[in-house]
C-alpha cells in the first residue's frame, strides 16, 4: 500500500455533520495513532527540507493547523506562528476578514510574527472553499512575508478552494483528495 492510501484509510468520514448532506473528513484518527501520525508529519517534513522549499517559518491556521504546523516547525528547526480567530491573540495584530458559506469570519496574526523577506509555509488540515487559507496568505503578505506554499492534509476539490488558491498564485501541496467521494 502506498503512503497516500495508508493515510486515506485513517481519515474518518462522518456523514451528515455538521449538517445534512455534508461528508465531514475527520483527521483525528491520523493523530491518535503514533505510527500514522509520524508517517503524516514525515510527508511534510521531507518535502520542506528541500532547499528550494525550505521556509523560514511555519504559520498554522487555527486550530488543527497548529497541531501540524508546530510539529513540522520543530522537525525543521524553524519557528512557528499561529494565525488565530479574531480576539484570541494578546499582542498587537493585523486582521483579515473572509467569507464563509453563511457570513464572514476574521483571522489575526501578531504584527511581529513575520517580517519583510521571510518565507513562510502556510498550513491547515483541510482545504474546502479556500477562504481561510487565502486570508492567512493575505495576512502574511501584509507583514511583508512571502508564502512558499500552502499545505494541507486533505483537499476537497469539488468545493473549489484549491483551484481558487492556485489561481491566486499560491502553490499548494495536499496529500489526500476526496474528489467525488
From TrEMBL:
Homodimer. It comes from the Bacteria. Keywords: Cytoplasm, Glycosyltransferase, Purine salvage, Transferase. GO terms for biological process: adenine salvage; AMP salvage; purine ribonucleoside salvage. The keyword Chloroplast does not apply. Belongs to the purine/pyrimidine phosphoribosyltransferase family. NCBIfam families: apt, PRK02304.1-3, PRK02304.1-5. The keyword S-adenosyl-L-methionine does not apply. Its EC number is 2.4.2.7. This is Adenine phosphoribosyltransferase. It catalyses: AMP + diphosphate = 5-phospho-alpha-D-ribose 1-diphosphate + adenine. GO terms for cellular component: cytoplasm. It is found in: Cytoplasm. Pathway: Purine metabolism; AMP biosynthesis via salvage pathway; AMP from adenine: step 1/1. The gene is apt. It comes from Thiomonas bhubaneswarensis. Residues 30-157 form the Phosphoribosyltransferase domain. Catalyzes a salvage reaction resulting in the formation of AMP, that is energically less costly than de novo synthesis. One of its GO terms (molecular function) is adenine phosphoribosyltransferase activity.
